[in-house]
Amino acid sequence: ELKVLQEKNEEYTEELKNLHKENKELKKKNAIIEEVNRALGTERKDLIKETTTLTQIKSQLEKELAHEKEKAKRLKEQLKKCSTMPAKLRKVKKENKELKEKISSLKKINQSVEKEKSFLSQKLTSLKEEKTQLEKELEGMEEKLNVLNKTMTALRNEKEDLIKETTTLTQIKSQLEKELAHEKEKSLELEKELKELSAKTQNLEEVKKNLDGQLKILNQKILALKRENEECKEKLEEIGITKKEYKSDKDLFQIRKIALYRRILSYVQDKEFDKAIKECKKVLEINPQDKDAHFNLGFLYSLKKDFKRAVKEYKKVLAIDPHDKEVYYNLAIIYHQNLKDEKKARYYYEKFLKEIGK
Q1: Which residues, including other chains, have CB under 8 Å from residue 334's CB and lie 6 or more apart?
Q2: Which one, out of 20, 102, 194, 201, has a CA that is 20 to 30 A from the CA of 118?
């Protein structure tokens, strides 16, 4: 975009140069018109003077003609009076003839003057028309010159705006380059964190496999304990021991707890999770701080896909025992796979690794 603006600026500069050249040519033409106008004015003045002179000559000739006519008239009268004077008559005839020739010559001069006056009048009219035409052309050129000046001013303003816009774009480009560099650094950091998280995820998978193995072992132990519990129950019944004969309330609670967990395990195996949850809550009614009951509730809520409640129960376990690594692992898995909160998943996974390392 900056290159386009530069090209546009160059085009405007070239157009401005052409306008300057055209302006100079117009000024030259204007100077020529003014010179012609001055010459026409001078010539007009000369024509007026010459016309005035010819008018004066014509007036003088007309006066002389009238005077000669008067003189001829007087001579005719004298001729009549002097008919007896042949010599004087011949002289008068001769003078009369000369006067006629002179009058004829004056008439010719007068006609010539009239023709020249008519020619000068036509020429003056033509010059006036030409002057009017030149004045109109001059006005048109002045208007065109004003338009060119306005165009040049607009181009200058546009050039200044383009310079400002180019400066702004340069600043924006610089800012974007800085932001891009920052984003690249951030991207590299994220890639690094992703690699670390990927490595940790692999470790989590290995830990999960280990825990799955441990869970199988625990299930086997639970089954074994269940069998042992049945045997113990049978033996207790055989020897006739009643509830009153238990050594303490603690023993009674453990027996009730074992019975509840047997039912919970049975419900889980039958996938009756709601019933299993009710049995866990019965354990908590006996002892609200029972860590195993809260852990089992978290596990059951996870099976039901109710991950928010599962998280809530697991956090209750941590409130009782902040070093339970299995809870940290389960929370890391829920936040990573189900709630899609990588920050919290990373936090609980790191806590899990820390507990394992102790």
Answers
A1: 302, 307, 310, 311, 314
A2: 102
